[in-house]
Automatic annotation (TrEMBL):
Gene3D superfamilies: 1.10.150.130, Intergrase catalytic core
A GO molecular-function annotation: DNA binding
Organism phylogeny: Bacteria, Bacillati, Actinomycetota, Actinomycetes, Micrococcales
Name of the featured protein: Tyrosine-type recombinase/integrase
Chain residue ranges for the region called Disordered: 1-44
PANTHER family cross-referenced by the UniProt entry: PHAGE INTEGRASE-RELATED
SUPFAM superfamilies reported in the protein's UniProt record: DNA breaking-rejoining enzymes
Compositionally biased tracts (Basic residues): 14-31
Compositionally biased region (Basic and acidic residues): 1-13
Length: 482
């Protein structure tokens, strides 16, 4: 049996104190030039314990400048993989690699267009959108997008197939420009949502434009201009026969349809010597929600029935008073004494009708104080309101041609045109119409059909006079020689 000598003991002790031994500190493994580095970093947790993570770093050249890329993970291998992935993404951003070179997370690879659309729609529902807008988005997604693209992997969408769908398939089905635009906006916004979250790296709709809205023609402009000058008084005169003139006066003041139908007793104030109409809310129809599971590949509900007939229906269709369409939509409009008296008499008559046994308003905050209702106290549907306007127009003798496809909203265009012709400046238009100051110029161009030649007549007249009439300065001739 071999006996250890003192020399053996010293040699064994020295072997334990080497660079890679248990006593000595371990240094990072040397790497080849250009490979980068990876090293352990101790971290202290909230509970005081210590954990070691690994940080990988590498300096690369991008755009002619050096850039350091770092990543951190629990293991050395994972830190290197994360760092290399970040380097690849940077190279894609600089156009040095194709987006397809980035490896796809298996979870992301399984996401479909249906998942994308429903995730986006759920986020929109959590926002402050009007119920009618949510309903429109939901209908466009279920009726048009899910049946066509619902089961397709979202990363597999291509520019060519989307272009063909929006420019050929949808028009061939007889869908109008507005429906195609709304469907287009739904899909593009949903894809924007996924690109924002890093799920999509390449947007398949870049360069694809939504169908343009119908442009206002010269004849449209002339028709609205004539209507703004002559049609308003005729509508009021005809509406007086049924004591409904106040409703259409407010329309001709530029209020939106939902804003007029949502007016209540407390929307009128007398303050600082002025009678004011406070536009602070709008009437909205909120719908029930389907309680069944939606098949995102086909757009069909599990029960196969409509929302109102769903056995798991959530809530009921109901009326609500919601805030104005935008923050700037909240506004106060000064009223004349004559209009204030007219509003006072209307409110008085409505309050008398509320005491009748046949008056049964809808349940809901403020709905029992609506100023414009049906005879039984129920809110007025937008469709019924449009029919009332068309009935008035049929009874009016107006020989100048109505604006094409005239709706209740056309009254808002007429109001803008009349106000501009009357000399209203942009600040006054913003306060009356409830526009955003940032978009005032765009709104004026959309809504106004004002007679710009009439507005510039004085300036043009002065210019013409200067051309036709020699300027007499009263200065004697020969002044220069003198």
């Amino acid at each position: 049996m071999y006996e250890f000598k003192n020399e053996d003991i010293d040699r064994l002790r020295r072997s334990g104190s080497g660079k890679h031994g248990p006593i000595g500190k371990r240094n990072p493994k040397k790497r080849f030039n250009g490979e980068g580095s990876v090293y352990p970093v101790p971290r202290t947790r909230k509970d005081g314990s210590t954990v070691t993570v690994y940080r990988a770093a590498k300096t690369i050249e991008l755009g002619g400048k050096p850039k350091k890329i770092t990543a951190q993970a629990r293991t050395e291998r994972e830190a290197l993989e994360r760092r290399d992935l970040k380097i690849l993404k940077e190279r894609v951003n600089y156009g040095l690699e194709s987006p397809e070179a980035i490896p796809v997370d298996p979870k992301i690879a399984r996401l479909t267009v249906g998942d994308c659309l429903m995730d986006w729609l759920n986020e929109r529902k959590r926002g402050n959108l009007a119920p009618a807008t949510i309903h429109m988005y939901d209908a466009r997604i279920r009726n048009h997008l899910l049946p066509k693209f619902g089961s397709k992997p979202v990363r597999a969408l291509t520019y060519e197939e989307l272009k063909h769908y929006f420019t050929v398939t949808m028009p061939d089905r007889g869908l109008g420009v507005d429906s195609i635009r709304q469907t287009f906006i739904c899909l593009r916004s949903a894809l924007d949502y996924y690109q924002r979250d890093g799920i999509l790296y390449r947007h398949p709709m870049i360069g694809l434009k939504a169908p343009a809205k119908k442009r206002k023609t010269v004849n449209d402009t002339k028709a609205i201009r004539k209507a703004a000058d002559r049609l308003g008084p005729l509508i009021i005169q005809e509406a007086q026969k049924d004591k409904q003139e106040l409703r259409w006066i407010f329309g001709l003041l530029g209020l939106r349809q939902a804003e007029v139908l949502g007016l209540t007793d407390d929307c009128f104030e007398e303050r600082d010597g002025h009678f004011r109409l406070v536009v602070k809310q709008q009437l909205q129809r909120a719908g029930a929600e389907h309680g069944c599971e939606l098949d995102t590949t086909s757009g069909k509900w599990e029960c196969g029935k409509r929302t109102t007939q769903c056995p798991k229906k959530i809530g009921d269709n109901r009326w609500i008073l919601k805030g104005t369409k935008t923050v700037n939509g909240y506004r106060e409009i000064a009223l004349t004494v004559e209009l204030w008296v007219l509003a006072f008499n209307h409110i008085k008559a409505v309050k008398e009708r509320r005491s009748l046994p046949t008056f049964h308003p809808e349940k809901g905050e403020g709905l029992d104080k609506l100023l414009f209702t049906r005879d039984d106290g129920k809110p007025i549907y937008g469709q019924r309101d449009r029919q009332a306007l068309h009935k008035l127009l049929e009874q009016i003798e107006y020989n100048y041609g109505l604006p094409e496809n005239m709706t209740v909203h056309t009254l808002r265009h007429m109001a803008t045109t009349s106000l501009i012709d009357g000399g209203a400046d942009p600040d006054h238009l913003i306060s009356i119409m409830g526009w955003s100051p940032k978009n005032a110029s765009a709104q004026i161009s959309i809504y106004s059909s004002a007679d710009t030649a009439k507005q510039a007549a004085t300036t043009m007249g002065s210019y013409i006079d200067r051309i036709l009439k020699p300027k007499n300065t009263g200065i004697p001739t020969g002044w220069e020689e003198l």
